[in-house]
Specification:
heterodimer; A: alpha/beta; Glutaredoxin; 24 helices; 19 strands; globular; B: alpha+beta; 7 helices; 4 strands; binds flavin mononucleotide; binds FE2/S2 (inorganic) cluster
């Protein structure tokens, strides 16, 4: 699947990544500079086309510029580099070494991102087009097998065959729960009623994950084609894409794609001259995590507050406006065209026994290569973090990786060889969630991480059911106390009890999974809790009430880096002289501790006033 | 629930935005979003107009406004500093940035300066985690913001009494 895009009649094409990450680094300026530079060269034979592409996932090295068909990737490009890129690389074919990616291990300069470990170890299905096509051009999608699956289904398959293919592929929902997509579709197809709905869940609420954003921004047609196929399979005539409020670019690109699909006859009445008609509407979310939950999301589309309901009756029976509804996640939809076009077998050949295909992760946190990573199910955490991710930043020691967002948990170093799939993660006390993978090092406090998630959930619990609303509040109070050095040993047991009640008695999965961040850290990092409670010490140097910093005169080289970073002006010291921290000015933000390259900033304990 | 008299000046503009949509309950969220986008908050007058248009009681429109984070019932500042406190940014110390903003602008997340110039907000993951910690000011994204950078960014928007009120508006 990793083919390299063919340029139109061998013309050179420049692709500039304009995803959120690259744009933040100035990709638009690079794009504009290249475009205006090319205007100056109307006499040149090569006619490079500058295209804005969706997120490549390799955000750390952005802005990224690619030149095809030669397959050259330049990293961290600035607007000033535009002249050189055009003059040297495009016109004379010379590589600009300074802009090439340098492998951190071999120190070699690599001509293309396709040659890097970060890329080579991935297996792209859902992300197959991201960064390779211009999302605003339907022709780009069509060149890469776009709408071929739809054509195949409408011409050669009846709706039951489509469902059977999805079932045989073993595709499980990528939005978190991992429910088999084929079974869901079957239930909706079997449900009585003329009116049925298809929904794409693009609410992506996990704070720290952006797989779905990238797909919606970078390859909107694959989501649309997947939904059309789903609608054909279950007999729906109307669909909705519910997009998170913050995702402006996704809304823009999806809107354009829906329009283009209409004008090409892939959406609307009598699609591709068949009897089948289907339409898609975009809905912008209101910004509430709980709206990612399917019943809450439907309430939100109906124009109500996003409160979940109990699922005695599944949405496939009574969903949107009480009608049978299939709701799937963005990434789930993105897999559908590939499954239909290339068959269930090819898809099921990838992955593990019970989790087929690939999963996209957003690999972030304290890791060298951050970005989107798509790997076969069953790849180990070690492979993802060390081989693709390049290991922990600044060679610090790995402490944990958080998966599954606020519903997930923290997995310790001892489980790094865990093959990642839906079931193994659940067994480890975490969950797949939507695919956030946040790497944490020894400067991350696990108690504070638990507090962070619970605090997040406290703001997001809709308040409808008591176990979730009150349970979260109680957990937050206890965790805050522990972080402030006011915890008691009994609290650990108390938290476990509260968690159990929440798991049993909450109305929706938000409350039922909210204990995971607490329980998983209690399970794997209990010592850290005990340090906070008994010794009033935060081993990571994060909890401010429990931490002081001082500079080890033996180690300090007087480089002034910490002096410059200190926003409280609490560090004194001249170049080449030992620095000192003035404790009364220090706000304990820990910036000096993190930036010091010589380990000269050390953690001290704070004398705690008991009682 | 008094309506600010100034809001009547905009009555026709509100109506125009509202009437872009069919008067059905399912238009509610979209209408509210358009108004919020245009005015940076939901004016009271607009809320009662919306209520009439879609046929939903004012109380339910308020319920929507307070439930969803996208909406605000008071005007936001001209410059909105949105600090990402998603997980990736959090473990790279987004909290320090919030502390510093509070020190420089004197406001906490969710608040607006009395002169109506600045608001500070937190958001969950802007999808640029590779650049953590991330901050957005009126749509402009700043990546890998260190406490040392912040002062410069605030100054870009005329902060810290650097004469921003002379510029007029
Ligand atoms: C609190 C909560 C938040 C959720 N957030 C999302 C989300 O952001 N995106 C998503 O696709 N599914 C989310 N889900 C899962 C959905 O309820 C639903 O299972 C999913 O959209 C079904 O699609 P799938 O089978 O393709 O995964 C969430 C569930 C809960 C309980
Ligand atoms: S966590 Fe801040 S951008 Fe993702």
């Amino acid at each position: 699947m990793d083919m390299i895009i063919k340029a139109h009649d061998d013309r050179q094409t420049i692709l500039v990544c304009c995803g959120t990450g690259c744009t933040a680094n100035g990709a638009r300026d690079v794009f504009n500079a290249l475009q205006s530079k090319l205007k100056d060269h109307p006499d040149i034979e090569v006619l490079p086309v500058v295209k804005a592409t969706g997120c490549n996932g390799w955000c750390e090295k952005g802005p990224l510029v690619r030149i095809i068909p030669r397959d050259i990737t330049y990293c961290s490009v600035k607007a000033q580099d535009a002249d050189e890129i055009v003059d040297k690389t495009l016109l004379e074919g010379i590589l600009i070494k300074r802009l090439l990616y340098r492998d951190p291990v071999s120190k070699e300069h690599l001509a293309s991102h396709h040659l890097t470990d970060f890329y080579r170890k991935q297996h792209k299905i859902a992300l197959r087009n991201i960064g390779e096509i211009d999302p605003a051009q339907i022709s780009d999608y069509l060149e890469r097998e776009g709408y071929q699956a739809l054509k195949k289904a409408l011409q050669k398959m009846d709706s039951q065959e489509v469902i059977d293919t999805v079932k045989a592929a073993g595709l499980r929902g990528r939005g978190g729960g991992g429910f088999p997509a084929g079974n869901k579709w079957q239930a909706c197809r079997n449900a009585s009623g003329q009116e049925k709905y298809i929904i794409c869940n693009g609410d992506e609420g996990d704070p720290g994950a952006f797989m779905d954003r990238s797909i919606m921004e970078g390859d909107p047609h694959t989501v649309i084609e997947g939904m059309i196929l789903g609608a054909y399979a279950v007999g729906a005539s109307h669909g909705y894409i519910y997009v998170r409020d913050e995702y402006d670019l996704a809304v823009q690109n999806l809107g354009q794609a829906i329009k283009d699909a209409h004008s090409h006859g892939y959406l609307g009445n009598r699609i591709m001259d068949s009897d089948f008609s289907f339409d898609i509407e975009l809905v912008r979310g209101g910004g509430a995590f709980v709206c990612g939950e399917e019943t809450a999301l439907m309430a939100s589309i109906e124009g109500r507050t996003g409160e979940p309901r109990d699922k005695y009756v599944y949405p496939t029976e009574k969903g949107l406006w009480g009608k049978p509804t299939v709701i799937n996640n963005v990434e789930t939809w993105a897999n559908i065209p590939v499954i239909i076009l290339h068959g269930a077998e090819a898809f099921a050949a990838v992955g593990t026994e019970n989790s087929k295909g690939t999963k996209v992760f957003s690999l972030v946190g304290k890791v060298v290569n951050t970005g989107l990573v798509e790997v076969p199910m069953g790849t180990t955490l070690r492979e993802i973090i060390y081989e693709i991710g390049g290991g922990v930043l600044k060679k610090r020691s790995f402490k944990a990786v958080q998966t599954g967002g606020p519903s997930g948990g923290c997995i310790p170093a001892s489980l790094l060889d865990l093959p990642v799939d839906f079931d193994s993660l659940t067994e480890a006390g975490s969950m797949m969630g939507s695919g956030g993978l946040i790497v944490m090092d020894d400067h991350t406090c696990m108690v504070e991480v638990a507090r962070y998630y619970v605090n997040f959930l406290a703001g997001e619990s809709c308040g409808k059911c008591t176990p979730c609303r009150e349970g979260i509040r109680a957990l937050l109070e206890i965790l805050t106390d522990i972080c402030n050095g006011q915890g008691r040993m009994e609290d650990l047991q108390l938290m476990e009890d509260i968690c159990l009640t929440m798991q049993e008695a909450s109305l929706c999965a938000l409350g039922r999974t909210a204990p995971n961040p607490v329980l998983s850290t209690l399970r794997y990092f209990r010592d850290e809790y005990i340090e906070h409670i008994k010794n009033h010490y935060c081993p990571a140097g994060v909890c401010r009430e429990l931490t002081t910093f001082y500079i080890d005169p033996e180690k300090c080289t007087g480089c002034t880096l910490c002096v410059k970073q200190c926003s409280a002006d609490a560090i004194k010291g001249e170049k080449k002289q030992v620095h000192t921290i003035n404790e009364s000015e220090c706000i304990r933000c820990g910036e000096c501790y993190r930036v010091c390259a010589f380990d000269a900033v050390q953690l001290g304990r704070r004398d705690h006033h008991e009682n | 629930m008094q309506i600010d008299v100034n809001e009547y000046k905009h009555e026709n503009e509100y109506k125009e935005l509202i009437e872009n949509y069919a008067g059905k309950p399912e238009s509610l969220l979209a209408i509210m979003q358009d108004i919020q986008k245009q005015y940076n908050y939901l004016p009271r007058l607009a809320i009662s107009l919306i209520s009439r248009h879609v046929g939903i009681p004012v109380s339910r429109v308020y319920a929507m406004a307070s439930f969803y984070k996208a909406f605000s019932l008071t005007p936001k500042g001209r410059f909105v500093f949105r600090v990402c406190d998603g997980t990736a940014c959090h473990i790279k110390n987004s909290e320090t940035l919030l502390d510093q903003l509070q020190k420089s602008l004197g406001i906490k997340p969710g608040e607006t300066t009395t002169d109506g110039m600045y608001s500070v907000e937190t958001v969950n993951c802007l999808g640029a985690c590779a650049l953590a910690p991330v901050m957005v000011v009126n749509g402009k994204v700043y990546g890998k913001v260190s406490p040392g950078d912040l002062e410069g960014i605030i100054k870009e928007y005329g902060g810290q009494n650097h004469g921003y009120d002379n510029q007029g508006s």
